[in-house]
Design a protein that fits this description.
The protein has helices at 42-49, 101-117, 131-136, and strands spanning 3-6, 10-13, 18-20, 54-60, 66-75, 83-91, 121-127, 140-141, 146-148, 152-160. It is an alpha+beta fold and 161 residues long. The strands form two sheets. Strands 3, 4, 5, 6, 7, 8, 9 and 10 form an eight-stranded mixed sheet that branches. Strands 1-2 form a two-stranded antiparallel sheet. This is Transferase. One of its GO terms (molecular function) is transferase activity.
């Protein structure tokens, strides 16, 4: 498994085809099924990854296309992570092999990132329409929902890993 370095010194092994986002990804085509997500180009994810405590992992198909992307942050910070908060998870409908990429990215966070960092809790900020999907994966609503002007109701969900 390839190793990536998160922050300055945290080494995490990722399965083949998964890696941290790179500047060279910013020109690649990415189309989400969700109309609101279509406003977020890959360059947005790359810029976001350069901020403290933020990590973006992509799933790359053998032909070099991005089949999915996940944005998450380490809380309280990258040096003392206690939990992971997934903020955006999307598959690329412009890539023929993208089916299941969102699920696969989530499993990489649970099985590789959380385990390497000894993190026991993952939170997801989910749009309401995806609540049942995340519930089927073992995530439970925390009751700390909020309203976002762009996304409407956000359902906070959590899972112990």
């Amino acid at each position: 498994m390839p190793e990536v370095v998160i922050g300055h010194s945290i080494t995490v092994q990722l399965p083949h085809g998964f890696r941290l986002i790179k500047a060279s990804d910013t020109g690649k085509e990415f189309i989400s099924e969700d109309r609101k997500m279509r406003d977020y180009k890959i360059s947005y994810f790359y810029d976001w990854s350069k901020e403290d405590n933020n990590i973006v992992i992509v799933h790359e198909s053998p032909d070099g296309k991005l089949s999915g992307v996940v944005m998450f942050r380490l809380v309280p910070n990258i040096y003392h992570p206690k939990r992971i908060v997934v903020e955006m998870l999307a598959r690329n409908f412009a890539s023929a092999g993208s089916s299941g990429s969102g699920y696969d990215l989530l499993k990489v966070i649970e099985n590789n990132v959380a385990r390497a960092l000894h993190i026991k809790r993952i939170d997801i900020e989910a749009v309401k329409s995806l609540k049942d999907y995340y519930n089927s994966l073992g995530y439970e609503e925390t009751g700390e929902n909020y309203y976002d002007s762009s996304w409407k109701e956000i359902v906070n969900m959590s899972k112990s890993v």
